[in-house]
Amino acid sequence: MRACLALLAVLLAPTGAQSPAAAAGGDASPAAAAAALQAKLHVVELHNSDEASVEEVLSVFVDNFGVSRDEALPLIKKVDDEGKAIVIAGLKESCEAAAKLFEDIKMKATVRQLTEDDKKALTEQAAKQKQELQKQAQGQQGQQNQGGGGGASARRGEYDGSDVIAADTATFAKLADDDQGVLVTFYAPWCGHCVQMVPEYKKAATQLKASGIRVAAVDCQANPAVAQQLGIKGFPSVKWIHKGAAVDYRGARSATDLIAFATMQDKLTQLKSKAASVGKGLKTGLSKILGSKVAAEGAPAAVEGGGGGGSSKLAASSAGSSTAAPAAAAAPAAAAA
Q1: Which contacts qualify for 326-330: CB closer than 8 Å, 24 or more apart?
Q2: Contacts of residue 225, Cβ cutoff 8 Å, sequence gap at least 6
Q3: pLDDT of 144 higher than 60
Q4: Could you give the CA distance from residue 136 to residue 156 in angstroms, rounded to a whole number?
Q5: Rg of the chain on CA atoms, in Å
Q6: Displacement of CA 310 from its chain's centroid (Å)
Q7: Section 130-153 average pLDDT
Q8: Rounded Cα distance, 311 and 74, in Å
Q9: Could you tell me the residue ranges of all domains in the chain?
């Protein structure tokens, strides 16, 4: 079976990452944000080595980057077949840290800036991988994907025509601050792992929709401000988001595991909402009780202060004054006399 490039994109969070709601509020234009992100991206180009075993290389990927053996093997095969291959993309510091891990097992790893040629090659590889996955889906499930399409079909949104909400920056901001939680994947169209996850993510979205759970996807190449301001650490990055708070998903990229995670987070969200509602009700009830108590305790003083017919005793001692305040003020003077 022909190996396809499955790029692991490790994108470190910038200092002072903001909440999801802030992702839509930046002053920078999308073009400027994309240019800024592009300028910061570097890659790790891994070179073949006879000194490192496959198991050692697999261990670096699985233990440090959260990918499965099946996802890492195509990368290793590409390095072996071509002599070298890009395996990591991210900020310079993250790439240097990743390169050190490979160098520790005696593999040469070069860190350099991501070029437009790199990006083009990765996009083409991801498109080919997408087409292969579509063909497999057609053969096994009879789905109506465009398997053999060319560049135009590859440029279409990964989640077009599915139950996944394709969210741009503004749409995502609304979803993130909504009372109902949402499962979101942040991806890049040139990321092989992102392409691999598409069928499973769509499947999960369809099943979760039946339970009233929303599933969304944000293309971070088209919406780079979201990636920068949320501190996305890898592509694909899956999170459960509710009212500006995010919970990272760290499980397998299968429909079954994604559904289990989203279902559990949805239940927790509902429980938190109910608890908050109950707490608010208790607080309101307590305020009413305390308010009534204060009013009840203050009532006799008001009566004694000349508020009505029951104040005859105080009224008599005040020598006909219209309010209790002058009578009270006169009392010290009388005593002094």
Answers
A1: none
A2: 23, 24, 26, 28, 30, 33, 169
A3: no
A4: 19
A5: 32
A6: 66
A7: 52
A8: 93
A9: 8-256
Report the amino acid identity of residue 99.
Answer: A
Higher pLDDT pick, 65 / 284: 65
Could you please state the CATH topology (level 3) that the domain comprising 8-256 is classified under. Glutaredoxin (3.40.30)
pTM of the prediction? 0.53
